[in-house]
Amino acid sequence: MSLEARTGRNKQVYDESLARQVAGCIPYDAKTGLVILISSRRHPKRFVYPKGGWENDETVEQAALRETWEEAGLRGRITAQVGRFDQPSKQNPNVTGTVHWVYAMEVNEVLDEWPEQSLRIRQSMTIEEALACIGKKQFMQDALRAFQTVHARQFKLDRTHL
């Protein structure tokens, strides 16, 4: 498999209001309950969940898994949809500029090499630590809080099957 990330926006999906569609995962370790975030390219001391453009030759879930591999070097399975989160346009805060489709992904493979390994740092952390270092972007805070709810429910379901 190539270690090159997809680039450009020529295959980018937009909705009817021209909001860019982005897909991503909040990867987690099912054994420890920790989430795995990556450093932001623009603000290296800030962490984010892996996300990026949904392209027209893939499903939103495939895009989320691809972005998680490209940016974080993680592979796994989607266990739940966390939600859809709107990010306001930079030009007009009253309009949605980007729609984020976010999924919970149980990590089953941590790769040593991946496309953005020289640009990112991976770090495992608790939800509380993640909320503290993810920055002030409301959609990211909302996604992590929603993940926390989905994650708690997931572990309760998993424990009933033991």
TrEMBL record:
InterPro entries: DDP-like_NUDIX, NUDIX_hydrolase-like_dom_sf, NUDIX_hydrolase_CS, NUDIX_hydrolase_dom. GO terms for biological process: diadenosine polyphosphate catabolic process; polyphosphate catabolic process. The lineage of its organism: Eukaryota, Fungi, Fungi incertae sedis, Mucoromycota, Mucoromycotina. GO terms for molecular function: bis(5'-adenosyl)-hexaphosphatase activity; bis(5'-adenosyl)-pentaphosphatase activity; diphosphoinositol-polyphosphate diphosphatase activity; endopolyphosphatase activity; metal ion binding; phosphodiesterase decapping endonuclease activity. It comes from the Eukaryota. One of its GO terms (cellular component) is cytoplasm. Residues 18-148 form the Nudix hydrolase domain. It comes from Bifiguratus adelaidae. The keyword Hydrolase applies. This is Nudix hydrolase domain-containing protein.
